[in-house]
């Protein structure tokens, strides 16, 4: 059973931008680590970005999206965002937000891992194509 609702996906040209939203559904995500995962066609889910809970701003990004994607929170709106710039065709996939299954963090570093279950919910489709 999913606890979040993803939105903001769509069709965008290469080099374009898109901002995804992850809204809590009866769940306060302010204090939780929240990760964005994506599943490209024919591929397994992969971690894209993660943001720590609380008021801190620790975040992490997959190497493939560093410098292009930015994860952020708006706790007043109970929402986590993923701002995606300079989009590439290889960014195409279904994007999901979830509480990570496992988190490694120390001294400002952060690494999030996908959950072991298959409760991925609906996600939001991102298609980067001309």
Would you kindly provide a written description of the structure presented here, covering whatever features stand out?
It is built from no helices and 12 strands. The protein has strands spanning 4-7, 10-12, 18-24, 34-39, 46-51, 59-61, 69-74, 79-84, 93-98, 102-106, 109-113, 124-128. The strands form 3 sheets. Strands 2-12-9-4-5-6 form a 6-stranded mixed beta sheet, with no helix packed on it.
Q: What proportion of the residues is helical, as a percent range?
A: under 10%
Characterize the overall form.
globular
Radius of gyration: 14 Å
Q: What characterizes the major β-sheet? A: 6 strands, mixed
Distance from first to last alpha carbon? 35 Å
**Mean model confidence by pLDDT:** 92
What pattern of helices and strands is seen along the backbone? EEEEEEEEEEEE
**Tally of separate helices:** 0
What are the low-pLDDT stretches, counting only 5+ consecutive residues below 50? none
In the sheet with the most strands, the strands line up as 2-12-9-4-5-6
Report the portion of residues in β strands.
Answer: over 45%
Helix-strand category: mainly beta
| Number of extended strands | 12
Q: Quick summary of this structure?
A:
The protein has 130 residues and is mostly beta strands. It has strands at 4-7, 10-12, 18-24, 34-39, 46-51, 59-61, 69-74, 79-84, 93-98, 102-106, 109-113, 124-128.
């Amino acid at each position: 059973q999913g606890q979040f609702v993803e939105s903001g996906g769509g069709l965008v040209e290469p080099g374009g931008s898109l901002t995804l939203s992850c809204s809590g559904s009866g769940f306060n995500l302010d204090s939780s680590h929240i990760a964005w995962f994506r599943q490209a066609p024919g591929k397994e889910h992969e971690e894209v970005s993660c943001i720590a809970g609380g008021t801190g701003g620790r975040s992490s990004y997959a190497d493939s999206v560093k410098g292009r994607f930015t994860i952020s929170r708006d706790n007043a709106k109970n929402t986590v965002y993923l701002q995606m710039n300079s989009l590439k065709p290889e960014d195409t996939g279904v994007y999901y937000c979830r509480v990570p299954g496992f988190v490694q963090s120390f001294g400002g570093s952060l690494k999030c891992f996908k959950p072991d279950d298959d409760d991925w919910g609906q996600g939001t489709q991102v298609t980067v194509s001309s």
